[in-house]
Amino acid sequence: MFANECLGGLQYEATTSAIVVAGAFLTFLLQYSSFRLYDARSRTVASSHSDMGHPESMSGDVSDKSSQTNVQVKEHVPRMDDPLSVLILEAGIIFHSAIIGVTLVVAGDSFYRILVVVIIFHQMFEGLALGVRISNLTTVPTWKKLLMASAFALITPLGMAIGLGALNSFNGNDRSTIIAIATLDAFSAGILVWTGFVQMWSHDWMYGELRDAGAVQTGLGMFALVAGLVAMSVLGKWA
User: Model pTM?
Assistant: First the structure.
């Protein structure tokens, strides 16, 4: 959207790429900080448990447990059933889905039917990916899973409601409107790039069950991956 003629010439041509990188970096920073806090909390809990025993009679056991705990903390790798990873993924999808809802309403009549069909498939694919991650959250109660799923289901209609409310005063060619929508869209793209490549692609294929999968499962997984890339790339032309 930064290439819109209404914006004129940009002094920095790579504005969209810079915002995408910023979104990915802030997502990384948030996750890295949370994992550091998790490790620090794990060490504190381990040390408090070790201080509860008797030093004379339990020194050997305490040292063994402490060493095991430290190894577990060092080897802690973010899992795909980690709630924070799924929340960040959903945040990126929600930002993007809200913008799609607004765009659907304010689009002209000539694009409405195309957008409806494209968005149905677009949201379906995103919903499948997010739904699988939410269902794999073993430490999250069912009511929280339902809340997360409901947030995704309602965000696009909410965006449409916002679009209807601002339909009479909305000017898609206004400079400020274009900059705001383009910035949010690019920032959410950065979040999705990070979660897609690092939290989903890398974990499934490099550290997950597909790492040691058989030839048939690996082939089917690769086919599904490439087919999804092609399908979302084609849908991205309109959505």
Answer: 0.68
